[in-house]
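[audit] Reproducing an earlier prediction to check determinism. Same input, same settings, fresh worker. If the tokens differ from the archived copy the diff job will pick it up downstream; this log only records the rerun itself.
[audit] input (174 residues):
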Amino acid sequence: MHTIAKFIAVPSSLILLFVALTAQGTKPTPTTAQSVRRHFASVNRKVLTMVKDFPEDKYDFRLKPEMRSFNELIVHIASGNVYAAKAGRGEKVNWDELDPKNYANKAAVVALMEKSIADADATLKSVSDDALAKNAEPWLGVMEHSAEHYGLLVGYYRANGLVPPESRPSNASR
């Protein structure tokens, strides 16, 4: 009987050790607030990378004549960030489109997108985790909007024979 107890005790110890080591390697599930902040930042990072990467001579490109140009689409996405920042601060706000005519070149569009992201991020960071967990709007709505347009931006790249930054081999491991 004593030999059987040793035989059972050794595997049990190994199982406990394995469980303990495995538990150390797992990440805790992010909170709602952490998820919202992470995903909001992620979609904005992807769009901003495209804004900086897309050739300036193609900023007026449209997939179809009735669609927004690349430039106009980026200004539209930035309008969402402006809306989120204002709504997130509790301001009474409507979605007011920024006028693409005020952002006539790539440098102006890049600066607009960077500023809209910085303002929205600053506001999002100022929202408490509890408040964000109770009400993730306007962040979720704007994030969904930006993600939908991110997909459209991929179409602008592909229609111009370009590979989107996230699809390039150097980004494949992300």
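[audit] rerun output stored. Observation attached for the diff report: The helical segments are 2-25, 32-53, 70-88, 106-126, 129-134, 139-159.
[audit] end
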